[in-house]
């Protein structure tokens, strides 16, 4: 989750993005996302540019003029307006502006998936892909090795996902591969899952169980969490037989551990006193 200061600065561009998403064609939103992410890559490569655009000691008009000079005839008017909103904000550090620019590109891709009716599928596919990577040490090393060119790792990723996942899922997974938000691959995938859920006004609950819950059990748990948190909750279930029985649920910073594994650990701790 971003710090409150970043969320506050992002709010202005969020309003413009939502206005665009309400009436734009999904393909148009994907084009805007490509343009925004192109600018994010430029900021990432050029630290001096990033610092100049985020330097609050310079007047806002000067920073916006620099942005316009840089992107004139290279991006659409809508993209320029979105980025102008970002650059006009007060960013504590240049990396925060870069993170917000990448977040904007992601939100545009998620808005396109929402318009296509694929947002829930994208969310689930990103989570499942993260589970596959986490469950295979060799795959995690192959995809996360920083000494290997990103494009080679992206080719491997596409060979795994293309034809099996939505194109937006593949595009977002590629972004996670390059360290979305300066994160590791698995952490970036988790963040993308949560952003997809947030696009649906939902929170993500990570559930660990010894066996696959029934549909009725999942529905009852989702309903209970929705009542507790006052918003929709999206369950992401992982099966781990080592917990023996019960469930462990993490939502945000809250953890509810009702597993037999935890109870046995508590019993052993008591016996050891």
Automatic annotation (TrEMBL):
* GO MF annotation list: proton-transporting ATP synthase activity, rotational mechanism
Question: What Pfam families does its record include?
Answer: OSCP
What is one cellular component GO term in this UniProt entry? plasma membrane
Predominant location category: membrane
Taxonomy of origin reads:
Bacteria, Bacillati, Actinomycetota, Actinomycetes, Micromonosporales
Topology versus the membrane? Peripheral membrane protein
The name this protein goes by in its record:
ATP synthase subunit delta
**Which keywords annotate this record?**
ATP synthesis, Cell membrane, CF(1), Hydrogen ion transport, Ion transport, Membrane, Transport
Key word Hydrolase present in the record? no
Family membership, please give it: Belongs to the ATPase delta chain family.
Q: Which HAMAP family match?
A: ATP_synth_delta_bact
For this protein, the record's InterPro entries field holds:
ATPase_OSCP/d_CS, ATPase_OSCP/dsu
Q: Which gene encodes it?
A: atpH
Job description of the protein: F(1)F(0) ATP synthase produces ATP from ADP in the presence of a proton or sodium gradient. F-type ATPases consist of two structural domains, F(1) containing the extramembraneous catalytic core and F(0) containing the membrane proton channel, linked together by a central stalk and a peripheral stalk. During catalysis, ATP synthesis in the catalytic domain of F(1) is coupled via a rotary mechanism of the central stalk subunits to proton translocation.
Cellular compartment(s): Cell membrane; Membrane
